[in-house]
Amino acid sequence: MKKFLSIALILVLIVGCFAACGTKATTDDTDASAAPTAAASGDTIKVGIIGCQTGDYAQYGISVMNGATLYIDQLNANGGLNGKQVEIVNYDNKGDSQEAINAFNRAVDEGITALIGDVLSGNTIAVVGEANPINMPMITASATAAGVTYDAETDTVYANVFRTCFIDPFQGEKMANYASEKLGAKTAAVIYETGNDYAVGVKDAFVATCTELGIEVVDEEGYATGDVDFKSQLTTIASKNPDVVFCPNYYEDDGLIITQAREVGITATFMGSDGMSGVSAYASAEDLEGTVYCSGYAPASTDAVKAFEAAYTEKYGTDTLNMFSANAYDAAMVLCNALQVAEDAGLAAGTDEYKQAVIDAIRDKSADLECITSKGYTFDAQNNPVKDACIMKLIGGVETY
Known about the structure:
By secondary structure, this protein is of the alpha/beta class. The protein is 46% helix and 16% strand. It contains 13 helices and 14 strands.
């Protein structure tokens, strides 16, 4: 009898194990409609962070991750949201759009109720394609392409998607104005990465505004993703002798471009957009001297900024302290304030009502926040922030406000 009972017990346990395995497989394959249960469980509210934390553009992704994490850690240390802790679900997309989509879907399966990210414009647009149909609240600190929040072909605003950074046209317009008003430029050339939504968007706005202002664009040179030799394009630019050269690219490429430009004899002032932030580590102080770029972050400009910088430096050092970390701190603040509104309304995290309440609060309840790169946030009709631009200048190798 004891032997029979033992065998029966073993069989029950085996069946239980198979049942558990079946349940796990179902959970891993859960679609977005099942996410509210996970999001509402326990005493945490899950927020996703997705970005390029390894790979060619890791400096951006790490800065965004650190800035957002810093704010959420501070919030949790002060009691969280009505006693609930904000739990970060973090994924590295390696700068790849398909990885970004996969990361988002995994984060949804884990029960996130909102997303901070993505980081690069192309990756973010890919994620928007997944997040918009399920109305997932989403705020990016760094994706500047106009298409992140607005589809021009269908005249559709992605109502669930916001950003704390500038859009590409804004940066291109501002830098063309700066070239005209501050540098007195009469001629300009552009060198840009042809396959990059960000670079193309900023370039197009710069060229259009230059035309309006009477600046002659004497040359537009493109290069392919991954190129490291720009001598051919720069030699052509040198032959046109422009007053300014606009580089709406990322910092690593811009560092190589400026170094090689000086080697072929270009003496023009180099200009860039916010992707140039961090270029001081990729070219010599002598070659960079006088270079200017558009930024959304003015270091040490207010008491709030100084407090953020001190806290960030204590936790992460100074290597990734920049506009992207500051914008991400703001993004986390705006998002968590909106989560607070939904929590105060007594809604269940992850439900359709909760997500809509978060979206509404981002849009309508962010103006009075004490943020780092803007004193509160208001958004235009396409969910872009209304905020001022700063100009950073390379002086003695230091990126200076």
